[in-house]
Amino acid sequence: MRALARHPRALGPHVSFFPVDLRNGEGLEPAVAGVDVIVHCATSTKGDATATGNLLAAAAASGSPHVVYVSIVGLEAIASWGYPKAKLATEQLVRDSGLPWTILRVTQFYDYVYDNSRKLSHFPVVPVPAGFHIRPVDPGEVADRLAHLALAPAAGRVADMAGPQEWDWTQLLRSYLNATHRRRLVVPVRLPGTRAVRAGGLLPEPGHTTGARTWDEYLSATLRPAAAPSHR
Ligand SMILES: NC(=O)c1ccc[n+]([C@@H]2O[C@H](COP(=O)([O-])OP(=O)(O)OC[C@H]3O[C@@H](n4cnc5c(N)ncnc54)[C@H](OP(=O)(O)O)[C@@H]3O)[C@@H](O)[C@H]2O)c1
Questions:
Q1: DSSP assigned state of 78
Q2: For residue 230, what pLDDT is reported?
């Protein structure tokens, strides 16, 4: 098994690291040579379409590997925003690549919600987008699902994946603040251009698969080493 990224990292046994920059194609050719499946999770705030185009071209030159791509539930509801627009374009590149493909759309990861909550809680007054209903999911369970899809034949767009509970973003933030013993004034703010999201646009489509791990389980496991109250 191979892991491709720009920066080396600790990896499990039987995984070789290949330094690759997908944006300029450096290191890409040897990294994809002879592979049967590529699970494409790389992303950046900018340049994902270029990066994915380079990956798909190198993959096609090396043979006909199955490309498994992870995307985001409800992209159409936020299609005017920069990153989702790029995700839609990137999904299309995968569909048009001529390679066997599978696309899994998933909801927001717990670690994304956690990081955002942690950053926002540095402020005494915390603005939160009003009416954002999401079903965040455990990233480990998403990884398991991607591995399962990678070992199966190409399946096109498969059922969305979401977490077990629907939350309002404000509730999620409040639960983080409670769990970390912080007191903050949480102010829901209605953002322009978010009508589709407030109508449930980020929720998964019927027939989606559901992760088992709850946000509360993730939160207590993540906070366990630093369980003592911090500051108020
Ligand atoms: N986070 C969420 O809540 C969420 C929700 C739904 C779907 N998704 C999707 O899941 C995927 C992973 O998201 P994530 O939030 O886990 O991302 P992440 O933590 O930012 O990780 C992105 C990875 O891409 C690599 N990367 C970035 N630019 C690269 C480049 N030019 N060449 C090679 N590797 C590059 C990074 O490694 P280096 O920096 O070392 O290169 C890193 O390992 C994305 O497709 C995202 O859209 C995420």
A1: G
A2: 45
- Beta strands, E only, the chain: 2-5, 16-19, 37-40, 66-72, 101-106, 125-129, 133-134, 156-157, 161-162, 167-168, 185-189, 209-210
Average pLDDT by stretches of 10, the chain with 232 residues: 96 96 97 98 96 98 97 94 94 98 98 96 92 97 98 98 97 96 94 92 95 97 68 44
Which residue has the least CA distance to atom 42 on ligand 1?
Answer: 42
How far is ligand 1, taken at its centre, from the CA of residue 138, in Å? 15
Q: Are residues 56 and 121 in the same domain?
A: no
Are 91 and 177 in the same domain?
no
Among 21, 38, 41, 112, the mutation site with the greatest number of ligand 1 atoms within 8 A of its Cβ is 41
φ, ψ of residue 75 to 5 degrees: the values are -55, -35
C-alpha 184 to ligand 1 mean position (Å):
30
- Residue with structure tokens 């190409």? 154
Domain range holding 8? 1-106
Residue from 11, 43, 208 whose mutation best tests the ligand 1 pocket (most atoms within 8 A of CB): 43
Question: What is the predicted pLDDT for the residue at 193?
Answer: 87
Residues with a CB atom less than 6 Å from ligand 1: 5-7, 20-23, 41-44, 51, 70, 72, 87, 106, 108-109, 112
Question: How many alpha carbons fall within 13 Å on the CB side of residue 45?
Answer: 0
189 shares a domain with 169: yes
Whether residue 3 is found in the same domain as residue 59: yes
